[in-house]
Amino acid sequence: MHTFDTQFLAIDTASRKPIYEQLADGLKALIARGELREGVTLPPVRQLAADLGVNLNTVAVAYRQLQDEGLITVRHGSGAVVSSRTTLPQTEQDLRKPLRSVLTQLLLSGMPTTRILRMVTAELRFLTKGAK
Amino acid sequence: MTAIVISVALLLFAARLRMLRRVWRLPLKNGQSFFLAHEVGPDFYRSAGAPLFRRYHVSVLVPVLLDGPLAAWLFLTKRYVDLELEQVLALVVSILAYNLMLAHFSSLAASLSLEPGKPQTTRLRLSMALRRLRDYTTPAIEWVIGGATLLALAMLGRCYALSLTANANHFSFAAVRGGKVLTVWVLYWQLGFLLLKILFIRRRMPLPAKRTEDFRRWRMAWLTHKLRIFDAVRLFCALSMLLGMTWITYGRGWPRMGQVILLGLSALALLLYLVYVAREERRLAATEKELKPVEMVKEFPRFPVAEGRYFAGGLLYFNRDNPWVVVRSVKGVALNLAHSTTHIAAAYLTGLVILAISMARLAR
User: Fold this and answer.
1) Which of A99, B157, B300, B303 is the most core-located residue (most Cβ within 10 A)?
2) Residue of A nearest to B202 (CA)
């Protein structure tokens, strides 16, 4: 009749990271892993907001962010559709910025570089492992 | 015929009593340390929770106490068809009322059992898997429902054509009238169960961060159970309509053996339906037993009290920008009158009442 799923989106209301960012990042990860393929329709803003128990604007902002990055297309009436698995072209320098910021955070936390490397490799493996 | 009508009314009343018994026992289902699915302190039922527990039990009795005198009056005045229709409506209203009541008391218990200093849950997960009606549709069932409906409608058309001929008599008109009532009534129920099915499929229940996989399994088992029951009811309705229309159209002219076979088939359909429902309930109970106590892991972030206009002592609420049908209010929960689901449910219930009244008039 139907299959069990593993496409989870996680939200933490106590996190310092805004919920819209958590939502956008969660959806991006699902798109990157191929769990949400091109052409798949995302739930309407109202429905997702009700399911997660968050404000309508929170979901709308997350969708807008994904739209700005070229991952989804939002059309009136038909909702948001995954349009691409790659973001709009960015220079390597632009892409390095967030990576450098995260790596700086990790170094400042006192973590040895070998452990950071292991962590990055594990995360990369997680993101590409199930990629369909 | 009167015996059948009384039997159906009694069956409906028995179903309501069974539901009342289940809802009555629900707060203590998980033991004294829980009120519904909320963990409470050891003295909850002797202190802050005692009035809440009492109020809960009084509320459970309200639907039966409200329609009891009306049902008794209808029975004593021998308005059996009216009694049957009244019991149908009372059953639907009771189901809705009990569900809202459970959400209301659950919210109140959560407020009472809040322990200062205890960390509140802040995390939840949501499955983003596609939720389309076609993924939860069994083509064979839909074909049977569609085929039975078309056949029944064709028979109604034949009855109507016969009533227009020169040979039309009292029975021809009675057949058209009876056929119209039967088909409209059954098709309305079909629509209701289809809407419910869509609602259940589209609603993505959040999952707790703890025991996510167990909870998801329970949720899928629960959803599958509900959808199978809805399909079983729809199938039963379609077959009942076909058998009913066969009886109305041809039954009177058949020899006694044919009539007995038709009645036997109807009884068989009912029996199969009841056996199937019982089997599905056992299956869900087995999953719940295996995953016990998964129901107790309903740890979700506590939603804030919704902002907006409240009516009827805080039970009703109006806010177009709020995406929830049932919102948290200061006094428990409130129904959002601005939500499209509320509009559809209200329109459907109104239609049901109008239909029941017009059917009762036709039967007189």
Assistant:
1) B300
2) A47
